[in-house]
């Protein structure tokens, strides 16, 4: 598993609340949901290295 780096993320309350509801619906933590959404967006745009797109 790749190393993870912690960082602060600022977002408006409405976005945060929507992400939390989505995370709850998918039975994920908020952090895991944000990672999932970012990874999917990067994959769809072809921005991930080929080995990470599977």
How would you portray this structure in words?
The chain is mainly α and 54 residues long. It has a single domain, classed as Orthogonal Bundle (Arc Repressor Mutant), CATH 1.10.1220. 52% of the residues lie in helices and 0% in strands. The chain has two helices and no strands. It has helices spanning 13-25, 30-44. Helix 1 packs across helix 2. The protein is globular. The chain starts with 12 loop residues before the first helix and ends in a 10-residue tail after the last helix. The model has no long low-confidence stretch (mean pLDDT 92).
- Strand percentage lies at under 5%
State the CATH topology. Answer: Arc Repressor Mutant
Radius of gyration: 13 Å
Number of helices: 2
**CATH-defined architecture:** Orthogonal Bundle
How many strand segments? 0
Tell me, what is the CATH class?
Answer: Mainly Alpha
Percent range for helical residues?
40-55%
Question: How many angstroms separate the termini?
Answer: 14 Å
Number of domains: 1
**Overall average residue pLDDT:** 92
- Describe the sheet with the most strands: none
Which blocks of ≥5 consecutive residues have pLDDT under 50?
Answer: none
Succession of helices and strands = HH
Global morphology = globular
Class derived from helix and strand content = mainly alpha
Summarize this structure as a short list of keywords or feature phrases:
single chain, about 55 residues, mainly alpha, Arc Repressor Mutant, 2 helices, about 0% strand, globular
Summarize the structure.
By secondary structure, the protein is mostly helical. The chain has a single domain, classed as Orthogonal Bundle (Arc Repressor Mutant). The chain has helices at 13-25, 30-44.
């Amino acid at each position: 598993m790749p190393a993870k780096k912690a960082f602060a993320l600022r977002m408006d309350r409405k976005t945060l609340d929507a992400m939390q509801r989505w995370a709850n619906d998918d039975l994920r933590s908020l952090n895991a949901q944000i990672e999932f959404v970012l990874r999917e967006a990067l994959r769809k745009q072809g921005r991930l290295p080929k080995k990470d797109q599977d």
